[in-house]
Specification:
The protein has 495 residues and is mainly α. The protein has a domain of 81 residues: Tetratricopeptide repeat domain (Serine Threonine Protein Phosphatase 5, Tetratricopeptide repeat), CATH 1.25.40. Helix content is 79%, strand content 0%. It contains 27 helices and no strands. Helix 1 packs antiparallel against helix 2, helix 6 packs antiparallel against helix 7 and helix 12 packs antiparallel against helix 13. It is globular.
Length: 495
């Protein structure tokens, strides 16, 4: 009786911890859930369900090696359990172990050729491996069997992306997207492809679909605002900001972005009124203060901008981030208005306080370049690029320095790098076209110009350059064909 009572107690405890763990797992608290499953195993170290769920937790936390270890422990207890075998295959898939993935799904399919879980693992593996013909056949088979789960449609979306069938990828995502880690990775990839193709309308559809489900909406609303801006869709951007301001009344960044929107569309009076109302509520806020300074700069009220900066500097300790930001803004204002000495004095003070500050260092490079001090500039720009490889302007200015030094090949490479980072960088495109050796290698030129014109179709100067390039390319091809024909006609034995 005593032994029976102990066993009942152990069974109750292990089931209690299992259920608690599952509740936490379903809420997404995988760390605490795993601890509960471990508690269940204290009362039964061969408890398959607890082992299986511990593996699931580690899989969700991307601890793939540990996930496999726990799932394989569960498999030893139940070697004929295909559900566990499928989850092991999924873990190897996420871990990126091709040989183990194939071995596991093939083992399952040898037992049950129609096993849906194993076939979905196989499909995902085929898509990842780029074996798209096999993936198409398998996905068609699965679709014939009826509606599949959301993960299947995530993989189908990835298949369409790899096939560059973006309209089908968008259609599938719009119908089947559900907020989850695995879907977000796919959606991020799709967004990147749509951005590369300047497909603004489909981007808008995808962002709106995401906003129906994602818990933290602000980053995606801000991204959607950027798409509206690129599409010059003022009305929809305005509607979006009204929703944002209503649903996030205390988020200052939303208000700062709205001010930027008003200034972009030349609604200066509305911007100033909104700014004043916000500064009354949040006096001294650095983000709003910077917006006020930008307002004065854009409306050519330079003295007012300088005054606001000087008043604001007294509110912060020298060397703090806000103090340095304001100093950099002041230096830039002096630089843009031709007072290079004052700009340099302030920028040097910033560097003295913050030696690695890239904005002040770059401004000093531009001033030195204007003043003809090229040798100091070239070393500093190379250092800035080494520290910040993805800032197009650094590459552009280094290209200018090489151009001044008649180092054409080096200049071409820097202008090219600037364009690779920022395809819409007009000045870099013009400079690159001026130094790029176009004889016989015009495809890249045509590609880069067309990429720029997708976003800037009204830029007549670049359109003219493109037309000249196409004419030159046509002339080269015609000349090449004539030469080839002449060589053929002159071969021995031909009439």
């Amino acid at each position: 009786m005593l032994l029976c009572g102990c066993q009942n107690y152990y069974d109750q405890q292990k089931k209690f911890y299992l259920e608690k763990g599952r509740e936490l797992f379903n809420r997404g608290d995988y760390i605490t859930a795993a601890k509960k499953f471990q508690n269940a195993l204290v009362f039964d170290d061969r408890y398959v369900d607890a082992m299986y769920m511990t593996g699931q937790c580690n899989l969700k936390m991307e601890n793939y090696k540990t996930a496999v270890e726990w799932l394989e422990k569960a498999e030893k207890q139940q070697p004929d359990n295909l559900e566990i075998k499928v989850k092991i295959a999924e873990a190897y898939l996420a871990w990126g172990r091709p040989g183990y993935i194939v071995r596991n799904y093939e083992a399952i399919l040898s037992i049950d050729p129609k096993n849906t879980g194993a076939r979905k693992v196989k499909l995902e593996f085929l898509v990842q491996a780029g074996r798209l013909s096999e993936a198409e056949n398998l996905s068609n088979d699965l679709l014939k069997e009826g509606k599949q789960d959301t993960r299947f449609y995530k993989v189908l979306t990835e298949y369409y992306i790899k096939k560059t069938q973006y309209s089908e990828a968008v259609k599938t995502a719009l119908e089947h997207f559900t907020f989850s880690d695995y879907w977000m990775k796919t959606i991020t990839n799709l967004i990147q492809k749509l951005e590369e193709n300047n497909d603004n309308e489909r981007l808008i559809l995808i962002y709106n679909k995401m906003l129906e489900q994602v818990p933290n909406k602000i980053p995606y609303q801000e991204a959607l605002s950027t798409v509206y801006r690129k599409a010059k869709d003022k009305d929809r951007e305005e509607q979006l900001f009204q929703k944002l301001l209503q649903s996030n009344p205390k988020v200052l960044q939303v208000k700062v972005n709205y001010i930027d929107f008003l200034m972009y569309y030349k609604q200066q009076n509305q911007a100033k009124a909104f700014l004043n109302s916000q500064l009354k509520e949040h006096p001294g806020d650095i983000a709003l203060t910077k917006s006020l300074i930008n307002y004065y700069v854009q409306t050519q009220q330079i003295d007012s901008a300088v005054r606001v900066i000087q008043e604001s500097l007294s509110m912060f300790l020298p060397g703090t981030n806000s103090y340095v930001e304001l100093q950099n803004m002041l230096a830039t204002i002096y630089f843009d208005n031709g007072d290079f000495d004052m700009a340099a004095t302030i920028a040097k003070e910033v560097v003295r306080q913050s030696k690695s500050n890239r904005d002040a260092r770059f401004l000093l490079c531009k001033i030195s370049l204007i003043q003809g001090d090229i040798y100091r500039v070239i070393g500093e720009l190379r250092l800035l690029i080494r520290e910040n490889r993805n800032i197009a302007e650094f590459h552009y200015y280094l290209g200018l320095v090489h151009e001044i030094r008649d180092e054409t090949m080096l200049a071409e490479q820097e202008f090219r790098d600037a364009l690779t980072i920022a395809p819409n960088y007009r000045d870099a495109l013009k400079k690159w076209l001026a130094v790029y050796p176009t004889q016989g290698v015009l495809d890249e030129v045509e590609t880069r110009v067309n990429k720029y014109l997708i976003s800037n179709p009204a830029d007549q100067e670049i359109v003219t350059l493109r037309d000249e390039i196409l004419k030159k390319k046509e002339g080269i091809l015609t000349s090449s064909n004539l030469t080839s024909r002449q060589k053929t006609l002159s071969l021995p034995g031909l009439p």
